[in-house]
């Protein structure tokens, strides 16, 4: 068995969906299970609709609903022609539900994480219906599997935690028998539901990759293929460094670090389920299916620098507490604040009198600050950025690290940290310096690539 995940651009329109069908066909002998994202841009549009509605801008929201409806129905028509009726009515029912949700939100004037998920999840529900119908029409034995019957999660709306045992049981019940019967199960990624109450949840933005690896792990698949709009994992984000090169093989740990520090090509949680079961993950380009992509495995070649990742809009939090820092339990107390507010900490550095750390998600910062002030003086610096240099052998090459640090001149270095495993050198710099620093580092470690 093999899991194929098609991202938003890989199912963006009729032509892309047809191309994905050919990829599935080429792998029929390997018993594929397909996980699809929403049509590209749909999740953003849905979240926009939810936010607009809650602000009372119902007319704009309804207009956006109708634009999405038209786009989906047009693609259905292109793919299915006269046979589009059934899927068009199923999709229309979802759009009617969306319009009702928008209206309800405009009355309530309040957007809860739960209702936001109910709306954001519609993108993958729609794409799964459309893709199944298209695949059937194209002669593939595709069968729709309702993702919310399989991807069981807790109730942390917006970033729900999958429950691997429940997922494994659901996969055995709903997915594996279809594969054994020669069918191609197709399900939406990104979305799930709570265990007993079956309320819709999402795994966080970009979460379809994670769905694919969870399903792959539950099926003990031979591989998980992530089909996207670039040739594989590259030495940097090609939107920032146009000359970034393909990495043919990369270690699980390196890929995981890159994903956590900004390489959007993979959701940061994708690697963990695959590693647990030892399933290789392959990243491939839907537009160039003949390419070899990037193979993520245990036994990749070990390099000093494999790739560079970066992200901006990072918040730096500094807590100064001369009296308390060295007391036992201080760090635990401090991190418990972040844990209580479900905010994950990315980079940490400590000195005798202060702790500095970064967070990505500043939505709960006010509450966090309130509690941290009881521990010491708190300084918040917004608009910071992180750049990470990742390589399995990085710590064995101090000269490489020295070169990297020299390249940071003028970028406002705020923190520097070498991961315990020695494969990731991370710096916190001014947010507007992230792209120029990535380009500079890339030129140093991958010269001549522009
Ligand atoms: P999908 O919709 O297929 O999930 P995403 O937009 O989530 O696609 O991820 C693919 C994008 O990730 C690429 O278009 C690229 O701009 C970005 N990206 C960031 N870092 C990297 C990297 N190191 N290698 C490849 N792509 C990267
Ligand atoms: N459609 C979701 C998003 O845009 C999930 C995904 O594409 O992976 O975040
Ligand atoms: Mg993605």
Which labels suit this protein?
binds magnesium ion; 8-stranded mixed β-sheet; 450 residues; 2 domains; Carbamate kinase; 16 helices; binds aspartic acid; alpha/beta
Notes on the structure:
By secondary structure, the protein is an alpha/beta fold. The protein folds into two domains: 2-229, Acetylglutamate kinase-like (Carbamate kinase), CATH 3.40.1160; 307-445, VC0802-like. It has helices at 14-26, 42-54, 58-80, 85-108, 113-120, 122-137, 147-150, 164-174, 176-180, 208-219, 252-260, 271-277, 330-340, 365-372, 398-406, 434-445, and strands at residues 2-6, 32-36, 142-144, 152-153, 184-188, 191-194, 200-202, 223-228, 249-251, 281-285, 294-297, 307-320, 345-350, 354-359, 377-390, 415-418, 424-430. The protein has an eight-stranded mixed beta sheet with strand order 3-5-2-1-8-10-11-9, with helices on both faces. The chain starts with a strand and ends in a 5-residue tail after the last helix. Magnesium ion binds at residues 7, 206, 209. Residues 7-8, 37-38, 43, 123, 189-190, 205-209 line the site of aspartic acid.
């Amino acid at each position: 068995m093999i899991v194929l995940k098609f991202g938003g651009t890989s199912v963006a329109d009729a032509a892309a969906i047809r191309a994905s069908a050919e990829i599935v066909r080429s792998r029929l002998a390997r018993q594929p299970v397909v996980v699809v994202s929403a049509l590209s841009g749909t999740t953003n549009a849905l979240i926009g609709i939810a936010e607009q509605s809650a602000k009372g801008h119902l007319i704009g929201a309804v207009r956006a609903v109708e634009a999405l409806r038209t786009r989906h129905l047009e693609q259905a028509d292109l793919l299915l022609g006269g046979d589009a009726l059934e899927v068009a009515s199923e999709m229309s029912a979802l759009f009617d539900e969306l319009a009702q949700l928008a209206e309800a939100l405009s009355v309530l004037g309040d957007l809860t994480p739960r209702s936001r998920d109910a709306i954001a999840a519609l993108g993958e529900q729609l794409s799964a219906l459309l893709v199944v119908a298209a695949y059937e029409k194209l002669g593939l034995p595709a069968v729709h599997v309702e993702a919310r019957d399989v991807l069981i999660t807790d109730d942390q709306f917006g970033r729900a935690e999958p429950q691997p045992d429940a997922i494994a049981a659901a996969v055995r019940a709903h997915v594996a028998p279809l594969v054994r019967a020669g069918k191609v199960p197709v399900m939406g990624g990104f979305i799930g539901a709570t265990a007993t109450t079956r309320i819709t949840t999402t795994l966080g933005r970009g979460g379809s990759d994670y769905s694919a690896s969870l399903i792959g792990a539950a099926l003990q698949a031979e591989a998980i293929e992530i089909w996207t709009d670039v040739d594989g994992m590259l030495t940097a984000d090609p939107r920032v460094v146009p000359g970034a090169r393909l990495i043919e093989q990369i270690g699980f740990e390196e890929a995981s670090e890159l994903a956590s520090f900004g390489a959007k090509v993979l959701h940061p949680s994708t690697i963990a389920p695959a590693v647990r079961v030892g399933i290789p993950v392959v990243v491939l380009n839907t537009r160039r299916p003949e390419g070899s992509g990037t193979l993520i495995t245990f036994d990749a070649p070990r390099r000093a620098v494999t790739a560079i990742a970066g992200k901006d809009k990072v918040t730096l939090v500094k807590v100064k507490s001369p009296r308390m820092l060295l007391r036992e339990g201080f760090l635990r107390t401090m991190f418990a604040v972040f844990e209580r507010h479900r905010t994950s900490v990315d980079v940490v550095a400590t000195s005798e009198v202060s702790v500095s750390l970064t967070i990505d998600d500043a939505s709960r910062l006010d509450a966090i600050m309130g509690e941290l002030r009881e521990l010491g003086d708190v300084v918040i610096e917004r608009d910071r950025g992180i750049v990470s240099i990742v390589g399995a052998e990085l710590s064995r090459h101090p000269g490489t690290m020295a070169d990297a640090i020299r390249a940071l001149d003028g970028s406002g270095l705020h923190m520097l940290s070498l991961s315990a495993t020695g494969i990731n050198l991370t710096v916190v710099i001014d947010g507007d310096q992230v792209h120029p620093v990535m380009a500079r580092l890339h030129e140093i470690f991958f010269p001549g690539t522009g």
